[in-house]
Design a protein that fits this description.
heterodimer; A: 364 residues; alpha+beta; 5-stranded antiparallel sheet; 4-stranded parallel sheet; globular; B: 57 residues; two-stranded antiparallel ribbon; 3 strands
């Protein structure tokens, strides 16, 4: 068995996990995604005994495929201008063929591509979560001004607004940036109807939360961490980046655990990072799931979490194993050890420039 | 910010001060490299929870 990670080797989660697995004697290879370069090339031979090669690595029965964050398909830039659009679509279609085919092979996908594509949709998440018994806030997704105003006219309720995707605006020639963040809005603060059509948005009942939960799902194992922010900010993410958040392991209420496992079963996801808000009555409100969300940062905030080791135990679990991940986590080194090597430049740094960033805009 | 023709989400976006941007970037070197959202001056990326490759159709 080998682990094939669909992500660049220097992805900030791939690099430490690959290092930890290799230290424990596991075989790990990376494929950054379909591209014209030699490492990015792929072949799928279908002749009764189907063979899939990803950048020189064959996909074999029993392999584990972690579809972490492959880069978008990249056609050869030298292709004629007249053929660029066609080539781009062909690359995209071939990548989809590969990604969807993977889940039909005798390999374990984390997660299945089809499940990931459906479950990245926030509307689907909220509906399925509610059907699985999880508490969800009343939500409107709309670009229809009258409906938006009607939603804000609900009695005795507060409303937040957020985007479907993250985005950064950077001022031309300056360091300062603006980042999408959940923010509270009142009916009086709504802009003109015209503005409400500039971009659809998510309007949601504000959960009266005391604190947030980041939950990590690994198969049948659930780990919940309370995130407390001194500033009581509505959106903890940027404050986490600034180190203003504490993370502490907390027990998951049995009804929430049952709901999440049912959600995982119905969605087909075996791995993901979930966000909840917890109110003063201790009720957990499902907010969203990111099927390839960041999770190793919790190890930095709470060294006892050992999510790197647990993830390594998870992806190398024998098929059908019901053992807790804790039973095998000691086989793997910790993130702290990796960071020490990183600090001493004994491992390659994470991250590298990308060709383009769909989440960044420049503004005057 | 000039509000003309700007989307509502931009109006509610969080403005990071230069100090905050520097703080996050400084932290990148050692500590908080893995947080859900951070600004990376070098990569110009919001390396958040949502995978870059999943933004398209």
């Amino acid at each position: 068995m080998k682990l094939i990670v669909l992500a660049p080797e220097d992805d900030n989660h791939t690099a430490p996990i690959k290092w930890a697995l290799e230290k424990a004697g596991q075989k790990v290879v990376c494929w950054a995604g379909l591209s014209w370069t030699e490492q990015g090339q792929s072949s799928l031979l279908m002749n009764g005994d189907d063979t899939l090669i990803l950048g020189g690595h064959s996909v074999d029965p029993g392999d584990v495929i972690w579809i972490r964050r492959p880069e978008p398909p990249a056609p050869n830039p030298k292709v004629s201008e007249a053929d660029k659009k066609f080539a781009s679509l062909e690359y995209r279609c071939f990548y989809h063929s590969i990604a969807y085919l993977l889940e039909t092979l005798p390999v374990w996908c984390i997660n299945k591509y089809s499940a990931a594509r459906v479950m990245i949709q926030k509307a689907v998440q909220l509906r399925l979560a509610r059907q699985c018994g999880l508490k969800t806030p009343s939500t409107l997704m709309s670009n229809h001004p009258a409906t938006v105003r009607e939603f804000f006219a609900r009695e005795n309720s507060r409303t937040i607004c957020k985007g479907f995707t993250p985005h950064v605006w950077q001022k031309e020639g300056q360091m300062s940036v603006a980042i999408t963040e959940t923010f509270e809005l009142t009916g009086d603060q709504l802009p003109t109807d015209e503005v409400l059509t500039y971009a659809p948005a998510i309007y949601q009942e504000r959960v009266p939360k005391d604190f947030d939960i980041r939950m990590v799902l690994m198969g049948n194992h659930i780990y919940s961490y309370s995130l407390k922010n001194k500033k009581q900010a509505l959106d903890w993410r940027q404050d986490a980046g600034l180190g203003h958040v504490t993370a502490e392991l907390v027990p998951t209420p049995p009804d929430v655990e049952k709901g999440v496992l049912e959600f995982a079963r119905r969605s087909g996801l075996c791995f993901g990072s979930l966000d909840f808000g917890v109110d003063a009555q201790g009720q957990w409100w499902f907010l969203e799931i990111n099927e390839q969300g960041q999770f190793l940062w919790i190890d930095q905030f709470s060294r006892d979490a050992r999510l790197l080791e647990k993830f390594c135990a998870f992806v190398t679990s024998p098929q059908g194993s019901t053992l807790p991940l804790e039973a095998r986590q000691d086989l793997f080194p910790s993130l702290a050890e990796y960071e020490e090597l990183l600090k001493n430049e004994q491992v390659a740094p994470v991250g590298r420039p990308r060709q383009e960033d769909p989440f960044l805009s420049m503004e005057a | 910010m000039d509000h003309d023709n700007r989307v509502l989400t931009r109006r509610g976006a969080r403005e990071l001060t230069q100090d905050e941007v520097e703080s996050v970037q400084g932290a990148l070197k050692v500590a908080h490299t893995l947080t859900p959202c951070f600004i990376d001056k070098k990569q110009q990326l919001l390396n958040g929870d949502q995978a870059i490759g999943e933004c398209g159709p």
